[in-house]
Amino acid sequence: MMQSMNLxxxxxxxxxxKFFPYKIYTQLAKTMIMANYSVALTLxxxxxxxxxxxxxxxLFFMMYPxxxxxxxxxxxxxxxxxRPGFLTLFLNWCIxxxxxxxxxxxxFRQCIQGFFIINW
Length: 120
Description:
mainly alpha; 78% helix; two-stranded antiparallel ribbon
């Protein structure tokens, strides 16, 4: 019984792997067709104060599993050690913005030519 089960799984996996690229191409084509017609207009109507509700829901469901796994006892322990928290805040708010702007200037100069007031 187990060997026949393994054989069925093997045949299905071979079938799946054989036609996987075609599945991807059809999904891409379907997505492009849907994006050009009704779905984009419908999703655009579902916004409140320039916030897209479907995107907000997708982001919520993407982040929710991560948020559930947070151990709040560890957060309380971390609040007693101030140095790592201040280091993280300093890096994220004082160093990274300038780093990312310089990275953008180096690699995407043509794309952002009129975006900043700075003349290069």
